[in-house]
Design goal:
It contains nine helices and seven strands. By secondary structure, the chain is an alpha/beta fold. Helix 2 (24-46) packs across helix 5 (99-111) and helix 2 (24-46) crosses helix 7.
């Protein structure tokens, strides 16, 4: 990893939602508990529904693999997990550190009659409660940015993947071209935090979002981190002009 990548990784690890003495992990859990009731609405509202297309495209990266057992890390309310269910796996497990988000996700599982095939549990991405080489695929949607420590979290994903297994990670990135770059940053830094604060009642949650995106090591830098963890065949696919990126890597 280059010194620039290492610097950005360290900056990422230090970005937190609230200015308190709690760990980043504790603050992130609190933040998502606070906004869990409004999360799905705000997610689709801010992206004008484009996030649904991103998830579909990301999950298609697993179609050829036909995974039978999938782990969705930082599952939140489960949108990425439910999209992955279209691959017809035998079992899908979603983990998250926010009980509030998980409760919303569990209601969706029940409403869709998927209790036997899906399970959501509270677990730490840096200490996954699974044995080595257990999953055919691991997915993460807008979650690696919230890991307290990026490399330990990615190392755990690598550990629980079977040899030949595939990780698919969907994460925000930063568009580079004019005028999308200028519009994006104005929207991200000014409009989103204001609307998010009003609707979610959490003034910090949607200010943390742009800060965490700006600090995240994207593209080649993120590929270098995946390689350091042990992954191979890393690939980055920007979507919608680079507003988000789909990363794939194999064990």
């Amino acid at each position: 990893m280059t010194s620039t990548t290492e610097d950005r990784k360290m900056k990422h690890d230090k970005i937190t939602p609230y200015n308190t003495d709690q760990s980043k992990k504790e603050q992130v859990a609190k933040m998502f508990d606070n906004i869990s009731g409004k999360y799905d609405f705000l997610n689709h509202f801010f992206s004008v529904g484009i996030d649904k297309r991103w998830r579909k495209k990301a999950i298609k990266e697993l179609a050829e693999l036909q995974p039978k057992k999938i782990l969705d890390v930082a599952t939140g309310t489960g949108d990425f997990a439910f999209e992955a269910m279209k691959l017809n796996p035998e079992k899908l497990v979603g983990i998250d550190i926010s009980d509030g988000m998980l409760e919303v996700g569990r209601k969706k599982i029940k409403e869709r009659g998927l209790e036997g095939k899906m399970e959501f549990k509270n677990a730490d991405s840096e200490a996954l409660p699974f044995s080595d080489n257990q999953f055919d695929a691991v997915t993460v949607s807008f979650g690696v940015r919230n890991f307290q420590n990026l490399i330990p979290g990615l190392s755990e994903i690598y550990r629980v993947l079977k040899p030949g297994g595939k990780a698919v990670i969907l994460e925000f990135s930063k568009p580079k071209g004019f005028p999308l770059k200028q519009v994006y940053f104005a929207y991200f830094k000014l409009i989103m935090p204001t609307i998010g604060k009003i609707i979610s009642k959490d003034k910090s949650a949607y200010s943390y979002l742009p800060q965490s995106v700006l600090a995240f090591p994207e593209g080649k830098e993120f590929e270098d981190i995946l390689q350091k963890v042990g992954f191979k065949s890393q690939k980055t696919m920007p979507v919608t002009g680079g507003i988000a990126s789909i990363y794939t890597a194999q064990k």
